[in-house]
Design a protein that fits this description.
This protein is mainly alpha-helical. The protein has one domain. It is built from four helices and no strands. The chain is globular. The termini are far apart.
């Protein structure tokens, strides 16, 4: 709430670019997961939002690889 003035799940696509930046290697990891799991653009955004939430719960300012991996893992279970 403090970062964007709203909950992570309410972030719009443009806001994800601002509040959920990824390193180049993490971006590639997410792109590979989207391709391998045959996920939609909407799933891409949901994974970013979940990764942001996981990072927040870990009191991390940035989304780290472990946060992204966990979010991808949840998506695989959902899918």
């Amino acid at each position: 709430m403090a970062r964007a003035g709203k909950a992570n799940d309410l972030l719009e696509h443009k806001e994800l670019e601002v509040y959920c930046p990824l390193s180049d290697s993490d971006y590639q990891l997410l792109e590979q997961a989207i391709s391998r799991l045959n996920l939609s653009a909407g799933a891409y955004h949901r994974i970013l939002k979940v990764a942001r939430m996981i990072a927040d719960l870990a009191d991390s300012q940035q989304i780290e690889t472990k946060h992204l991996g966990e979010a991808i893992g949840y998506r695989r279970l959902d899918g």
